[in-house]
Every structure is written in structure tokens, then in C-alpha cells.
Amino acid sequence: MKRLIECVPNFSEGRDMSIIKQITDEIESVDGIKLLDVDPGNATNRTVVTFVGEPEPVMDAAIKGMKKAKELIDMTKQHGAHPRFGATDVCPLVPVANISMEETIAYAHQLAERAGKELNYPIYCYEFAAKSPERKNLAYVRSGEYEALEKKLKKEEWKPDYGPATFVAETGATAISARNFLVAFNVNLNTTSTRRANAIAFDVRERGRVKREGHPITGKAVLDQNGKKVMVPGSLKSVKAIGWFIEEYGIAQISMNLTDISITSVHKAYDDVFEKALARGIRVSGSELVGVIPLEAMLDAGRYFLRKQNRSLGIDNDELIKIAVKSMGLDDLKPFDPKKNIIEYLLEDENESKLIDMNLTEFANETASESPAPGGGSISAYVGALGISLGTMVANLSAHKAGAKWEDQCDKFSEQAVKGQKLKDHLLHLVDEDTAAFNKIMDAIRLPKSTDDEKKTRLQAIEDASKYAIEVPFTVMQKSLESMEVIKAMAEYGNPNSVSDAGVGALCARTAVMGAFLNVKINAADLTDQVFVEKMLREGAEIEAKANALEQEILKITNDQINK
């Protein structure tokens, strides 16, 4: 499963579109990168670029963009309304999918080290990547802006984290960080009053509102001992908000920046605004997502609203997204298109042909054709996916069964359904991955073999591809065996009317294990790494034995239930 990082470099040029285009062309020249947004500002003289991909391509693209910015932007002539101290002013990395903040911090430090060495100017690390507490705050790192940088670099306390402590007049410095994902999220109100919308915004935003004596609006502001206004914090952490009127739609909105969705999620923000608006006699009519959002944030929202309805969370991703969209009214003002608003879907290649996107007839016909792939490995993965799908169906039916006995166990069935959905998704992924592994072997075989070096490279490529062609069906075995635990649980205490479905699921899972093991064995035949081969065959035989035993247990439970 792809690990995805978003990169949001801010370049100190927002007026000359030819310069901006040259920078973004460099970024897009890296394979595996998807450019999501280019947002130039004339007054700020600054362009915010957003792109996403796997970590290594992202770092390569960031370096290429920074190099081009160093070449084209002259900070001695740059002026604008936004704070800045370098041609590439900031370059944050944001974890999007299948990657932790700790891993993202490590990549931020790798990027900063590369930038310091390859670009040869000062690099500072801030926010989560900061190497000292005071440098967590970008405003501190950038204090005095470009104009103060030359003097700062002469002081020991301002020694950069990477790169030379040398003032490069044309380029300045860059601040690199790791931060959490920021979402621009607006909530729609059934009012045209900006004042009332602002009141709700002040209720929820972290900064809150000014504390006043007597009347909350007209009362005298309360000051602290330093003469500064005392603030009453709002209810949501890591949220900036303001109320405004949208003439296009004729409504007021709460416009929010959720600066860390790991602290305040979109669904939490929506529900809190809903409650605060209702307390002021105003209804929320829906919401609007500006830009993109990670898939997991939408799935979390879907699960949140299902949980409130006491329903099973073990449904597929498309259904979870639909629940989230309808629950928050994300299609209130305009259609919500997951293909355009969810980062992972934006990265999908529309021209890529996948087996799992075929209908049942197409898949069967493709399998039956003269093409050697898809073969037994892909079929084993698909049979395994069908097996756990049956187990998951039983879990969902049990969670939705009427009666106090069943409703009290909804969470237990929901937990099994969630496990089942994850296993199903993984096995479906392996349907295409098994064919991809076969293609890797064929590509390796076709490599040139004229010289000794070419022969050596080709043999190693074949060995590596063959190992991968073993690892894929071996993973099918592991996941199919794991799925049998869910299936067994559903045979034991799931909806008795569906126990035969659990039995069929067990038969499918055992078939998937045995079929995948055949592929492990045939792909191991020509490997030279006998240690690897012996390990795979030994562990594969253990998995097969466990699957056969589990199948018999589940079938006994199933038949006993049927014969009651």
C-alpha cells in the first residue's frame, strides 16, 4: 500500500507566471508526483504549490523545485505583503496515507540535509521537525525576515540546522518542516447575517473571543496586567474560523482552517458548529470542502456518523464516504466528487487497467483467455477476498439484527466487520499485485544479456522479481488464514440464519491458502537463495496445515448449527 506525503513549498514569487511555471515544471518532471494546486498571490508576491507522492519522489521533486527557485528568484529585489526570508521560503512535508508523523519528520530532516548540501545555503527546521524548542515556531525562525538574515547568520544561536551559515543574498534561507494536514472547511448556515456567523465562529475557534465586562458584544474589553485583551478560548483546538457572507449562494458560512486534523477532525468541527449554531437559533444546512482531504479523514467521518447511529462500521470505503458526505451535507452547494476531492483518488491513473475493476464476466473471460495472467495466484487472492466478504456479511447482518440480544452486541459484530473489510481490501489489492509480480519476472527476463555485466544484472533482476512473486502469494496465504478467525467467530456466534455463508467463506479461505501455496512452490523452483526458499516453504506448510484444521472446525460448527 502506497505511503503518501504531501509537500507544500511556498516560493517568493507570485507575479511572474513564467517563473512559477518553470518551477512547477521541474516539480512535475519527477515520476510519481501529482501536482494538486498552484496558488499565486500578487499582493503577497508568493506562490503556494501543493504536490503529493511517495516519500522519495516527493523529496526529489522538492529539491528540483528549490534549485529552480534559487536560479530564477532574486531576493534582493523581492518585496511582498507576506513574511519571507528565502526564494523557497518554507517547505513543509505532511503525512497523508500509511505513514506516521515520526517517519515524516525523518524525511523532513533528510530533505533539509540534501538541500543544505546540494543548494549550499542555510536551511532551518521548524514545527514537528524542529531541533530545538524555540525553533518550533515559524515566526521565530523567520523573525526579522530576509532583511535581518545576514546579521542573524553571524550569531551562534542562529546557526542553521543544515547547510552553511553563509548569507546568500539572492537566495536567503529556507525553513523545512513536518506538520499535520490542514483542511479548509466551511459550514453553511440558514442565515445571511455575517454578525451571527462570526459569533458562532468565535464560539468554536481556538483563539475564541475578547472577554468583556457586562454585555458580551458592547461591554468594555477586559485587559490583563500587561494591558493586553483577555481572550475566552473557543471549543475547538487547532482551528481558525471567521464568519462571512457568500453572495454566490446567498448564505453566511463559518469558514474554518483545521490546522491539525489529528486534533480536530472535519466531523468534530461540523458537529460542534452544528451545536453552537442551534444554540443561537440557527440551522446548519450543509458544508463545503475547499481543496483536498486524505481518504482516512473521510473514512473516519463516515465511521463517526455510523457509530452515532449504532450501526456496524464494517462497510466498504465507498459507502463510508457516502455516509460522510450525506451526514455533513458536503454536496449542499455543489456535487462532492471523491475523485477530485480525496488525495489518494487523485493519484489514481485513469488509464490503468485493473482486474478488480472488471465485472464478473469480464474477469472470468480474461482468466479463460490465452494470456498467462491472471493465473492461479490472482484467482487465489480473489477467492480469499470472496471468503472474507461472506464472513463480513454475516458480521454486518448480525450487527443489524433486531432484538435486544443482538443490538447489545453491535460493537462486537462491528469490530469483526471492520477486520473483515480490511482483509478483503488487502486481498483485492493482491489480485492485481500477483499479476504485476508475474510481469516483473517477464520484464527481467527480457533485459539485455550481451555483456557479462548485463548478464549479472539480468540474473539478479530475475532473482529479485521471483522473490517478489513468492512474497505476494505468501501474503495471500497469511491474510486468508487471518480471515478464517473472523469467519469462525461468525459461525460460532453470528446470525444463525447465515451460518451456511460462514461455512462457504471457510471453504473459500482454505482454497485461497492452498492455491496460493502452489504458486509459492512453483515460483521457488528456480531461486538460488535456498535459505529464503526453505523459509517460505516451511512457513507456508505451517499456514496450510492451520487452514485445513480451521476449515474442519468451522464446517463442524456450521453443520451443528444447521442440524439443530
What distinguishing features does this structure have?
18 helices, Four Helix Bundle (Hemerythrin (Met), subunit A), Alpha-Beta Plaits, Formiminotransferase-cyclodeaminase, Chain B, domain 1, seven-stranded mixed β-sheet, four-stranded antiparallel β-sheet, 564 residues
Can you put this structure into words, describing what you see?
A hairpin with a 4-residue loop joins β3 (34-41) and β4. The strands form 3 sheets. Strands 1, 2, 3, 4, 5, 6 and 7 form a 7-stranded mixed sheet that branches. The protein folds into 3 domains: 4-178, Formiminotransferase, N-terminal subdomain (Formiminotransferase-cyclodeaminase, Chain B, domain 1, 2-Layer Sandwich); 183-346, 2-Layer Sandwich (Alpha-Beta Plaits), CATH 3.30.70; 355-562, Formiminotetrahydrofolate cyclodeaminase monomer, up-and-down helical bundle (Four Helix Bundle (Hemerythrin (Met), subunit A)). The chain has 564 residues and is α+β, with helices and mostly antiparallel strands. The longest helix is centred in the C-terminal third of the chain and has 42 residues, at 452-493. It has 18 helices and 13 strands. It has helices at 17-28, 55-72, 101-119, 138-141, 145-152, 194-204, 266-279, 295-308, 317-328, 338-341, 343-346, 360-368, 376-399, 404-407, 410-445, 452-493, 499-524, 530-562, and strands at 4-7, 10-11, 34-41, 46-53, 88-97, 123-127, 174-178, 183-189, 209-210, 231-232, 239-246, 251-258, 284-290.
